[in-house]
Amino acid sequence: MRIMDFRSDTVTKPSEEMRKIMAYAEVGDDIYGDDPSSNALAAYAAELTGKEAAMYVCSGTMGNLIAFLVAGRPGESLLAGARSHVWCAEVGGFSGVAGLCPYPLNDDEGIPRKEDLAATSRADNNIHHPDTTILTLENTHNFTGGVAVSPAKFADVAREGRRLGFHVHLDGARIFNASVFHGVDVSAYVKEVDTVQFCLSKGLGAPMGSMLCGTAAFIEKAMKWRKRLGGAQRQVGVAAAAGLYALKNNIDRLALDHENALNMVKLLEKGGVEVEPVSNRTNMLFFRLRDEHPSDEEFVAKCKARGVLLNVNEPRRIRLVTHLDVNASDVEEAAAVILEVLS
Fold first, then answer.
1. pLDDT at 231
2. DSSP letter assigned to residue 230
3. How many CB atoms neighbour CB 283 within 10 A?
4. How far apart are alpha carbons 91 and 109 in whole angstroms?
5. Rounded-to-integer distance, Cα 93 and Cα 77, Å
6. CA 237: distance to chain centroid?
7. Cα–Cα distance between 96 and 91 in angstroms, integer?
């Protein structure tokens, strides 16, 4: 039985070509700065994002956390969307490790409202308030449905953050999905922020790792924090070579993932499933189980028994994610399985 895994785009496996490149990657000791593959990846990531420098980190969560550690100090506050990944799915690192006090912003449309920034900020010199120093944004926005926030809307909010004196950080785990969806270069988003983290291990198909990009001075400080957190590695070129291959070969094909997700929506809706409406949908879709449907556990188990893996994002809310390891036929077959189980 073929397993069709729609749990996340993190489940992708390296292609045969990528595996060959990893096997023959040039390596050195990255802590000494002499790993050729890691250096090439960092230079290419900086070029793509229009930033001065970049560095490889173990994960997107680590990249975001390091950005907060460099840009903020314990006791200061951070503005983040109430449904953002850094708030909901990174174990509270911004407070538990970086010591920052978070303030939630309404991001139900994938990005906070511009007018909420000043209202929520505590950068008011009030002796009783922690100084607000960081604004973190997310694009595409996971928990609101994989929304690709438009370049204009994103720029408007990011510029307001900078006007207020914040360090603006982009959790761009899937920023290439946004750039492909809107047909713009990724630099159209990144030029409006101080730092950006993006993942190599999601839709781009590398087996691990993320990149953190910013000014040369920022990345120099970030490298020390990476070391302090235990994230500095030696012959990391084996993984870096996969990341470089992904950036050079797998960005444009993200459009196919978007197409497959849209087709899944059409098939499920044709079968009576109410998929959550999302403007600017990329490679995700969500729907809620109704009272007459099986329990969360039963639904997931019955789909798994028929070869379809998916996630319960929150009670009664199901998420499916398309990626390079599922094709159009898989989408059709998985939709049929889901409809069969629901009926």
1. 95
2. T
3. 30
4. 23
5. 13
6. 22
7. 8
Percentage of the chain surpassing pLDDT 90?
Answer: 96
If you search the block for the tokens 């403007």, which residue do you land on? Answer: 279
pLDDT of residue 124: 72
- Bridge partners of 169, per DSSP, are 136, 195
The amino acid at 135: L
Q: Which amino acid is at 3?
A: I
Crossing angle of the two packed helices 254-270 and 328-342, in degrees rounded to 10: 30
pLDDT tens digit sequence for 70-98: 999 999 999 999 999 999 999 999 999 99
Does 327 score more than 90 pLDDT?
A: yes
Alpha helices in the chain (DSSP H): 16-23, 36-49, 60-71, 85-88, 93-96, 114-120, 151-163, 175-182, 187-190, 216-228, 237-249, 254-270, 296-305, 328-342
- Cα distances (Å, whole numbers) of residue 207 to 33, 53, 85, 245: 22, 23, 20, 11
Does residue 297 have a pLDDT over 90? Answer: yes
CA dist 220 and 302 (Å) reads 50
